[in-house]
Amino acid sequence: MATVLVTGGTGYIGSHTVVELQGEGHEVVVIDNLSNSEREVLEGIASITGKMPFFEEVDLRNRKATYGVFEKYPRIEAIIHFAAFKAVGESVEKPLTYYENNLLSLIHLLEAMNRYGVHHFLFSSSCTVYGEPDRLPVTEDAPVKKASSPYGNTKQISEEILRDAMVPSPQLRVISLRYFNPIGAHPSAMIGELPLGIPNNLVPFITQTAIGIRDQLNVFGDDYNTPDGTAIRDYINVVDLAWAHVTAIDRLLQGKQRSPYEVFNLGTGKGLSVFEIIHAFEKATGVKVRYRVTGRREGDVEQVWADTGYANRELGWKAERGIGETLLSAWNWEKHLQSKKTGR
Ligand code: NAD
Ligand code: UFG
């Protein structure tokens, strides 16, 4: 079992991954600056696993503070790098903030790896790198398209930085995981997604509408070239996604890679439309979602879903949870947040 540094470990995907890593016996050190998460998440993690991860409130833009973590935990063997800003719309408003945060954090970690002799790195990338793919389902060798937002561009540039950084550091071993659309929450409802303000993403908007925080959901366009006219995505349960990280860490640490830099799609292999998600939510929870169709959202692709064959074969991993179970977990998490707010 290894000591794994998880950056962004109090965030949405990071917290679920910490739970799965601890469940496998790994020791976890979390770095987070709490810019998009709360310290309380650590208690949620510990209530599930019975174990508090080590926590360092550090901003990865601060090189010295980042090095300090490696000094304090010399046994770190691998890094999972989740920490980043991720709001597509905000990145258009504040491009430099996004480039600074997402790229500088990565660079500081790579510098620290050189300095402290850490060789295994797992990177959170995104299917956004494929843009509007020419062929579906999309495979890992599909061309990377021009990014439609500064956020998307930070993922593309980060993948390039990783490839370049490996040239003079032949011991470096890297896996980039391209997530499709992570949704849902831990079945215990002790951790989940914590959107700040009005959610950008579909599922948190649905759960907030269903519970009465929002009046209605805006469906962004029903005139796409898809069977029901709404856009199609590959929605993956966050616990399934978290588990993929455990398999990828094992692959890195056990030297099972086919090449020093690898890329995997993490999705279900199945595309669902916005209307299908609304109906699946209503079926799973028995709660109606008020919605209206509005215009398309700028920058949205029409349809994208993953070819997961490579991840299935090489990582021995497969998304297992169905859409009903996943949406129910998102709903239970929303109810948990509500009961915390109202004290009932
Ligand atoms: P999140 O915002 O919930 O978690 C990211 C965490 O990183 C937050 O806790 C935040 O406080 C922390 N952080 C940000 N900048 C930091 C810095 N400079 N120093 C230290 N901590 C910092 O996001 P998430 O949904 O869990 O996403 C995790 C990763 O996965 C991100 O890199 C994101 O771009 C990527 N990703 C997410 C999605 C998605 O739909 N959620 C899809 C594709 C890729
Ligand atoms: N949608 C609505 N109404 C909403 C929110 C979303 O109709 O209120 C629609 C969108 O138009 C899209 C689908 O629901 O068709 C999914 O939208 P999300 O915002 O949940 O997800 P995206 O596919 O747009 O974006 C996600 C991540 C990004 C990442 C991108 C590609 O949020 O970080 O996947 O990886 F870049």
In short:
The chain has 344 residues and is α/β, with parallel strands linked by helices. The chain has 11 helices and 13 strands. 41% of the residues lie in helices and 17% in strands.
Ligands and ions found:
nicotinamide-adenine-dinucleotide, uridine-5'-diphosphate-4-deoxy-4-fluoro-alpha-D-galactose
| Average pLDDT | 97
What is the strand tally?
13
Overall 3D form: globular
| H/E series | EHEHEHEHHEHEEHEEEHEEHEHH
Helix content range: 40-55%
Strand percentage:
15-25%
General description of the model:
- By secondary structure, this protein is α/β, with parallel strands linked by helices.
- Helix content is 41%, strand content 17%.
- The strands form 4 sheets. A 7-stranded parallel β-sheet has the order 3-2-1-4-5-6-11, with helices on both faces. A two-stranded parallel ribbon has the order 7-10.
- Strand 5, helix 6 (150-166) and strand 6 (173-179) form a beta-alpha-beta unit.
- It starts with a strand and ends with a helix.
- 45% of the residues are buried.
- The model has no long low-confidence stretch (mean pLDDT 97).
- Nicotinamide-adenine-dinucleotide binds next to helix 1, strand 2, helix 5, strand 5 and strand 7.
- Nicotinamide-adenine-dinucleotide binds at residues 8, 10-14, 31-37, 59-61, 82-86, 101, 105, 124, 126, 179, 181-182.
Strands, helices and their partners?
Blueprint: E1 3-7, H1 12-23, E2 27-32, H2 41-49, E3 54-57, H3 63-72, E4 76-81, H4 88-93, H5 95-116, E5 120-126, H6 150-166, E6 173-179, E7 181-183, H7 202-211, E8 217-220, E9 232-233, E10 235-237, H8 238-253, E11 261-266, E12 272-273, H9 274-285, E13 291-294, H10 309-315, H11 323-342
Parallel strand pairs: 1-2, 1-4, 2-3, 4-5, 5-6, 6-11, 7-10, 8-13
Antiparallel strand pairs: 9-12
Helix pairs in contact: 1-2, 1-8, 3-5, 5-6, 7-11, 9-11
The chain binds nicotinamide-adenine-dinucleotide and uridine-5'-diphosphate-4-deoxy-4-fluoro-alpha-D-galactose.
Nicotinamide-adenine-dinucleotide binds next to helix 1, strand 2, helix 5, strand 5 and strand 7.
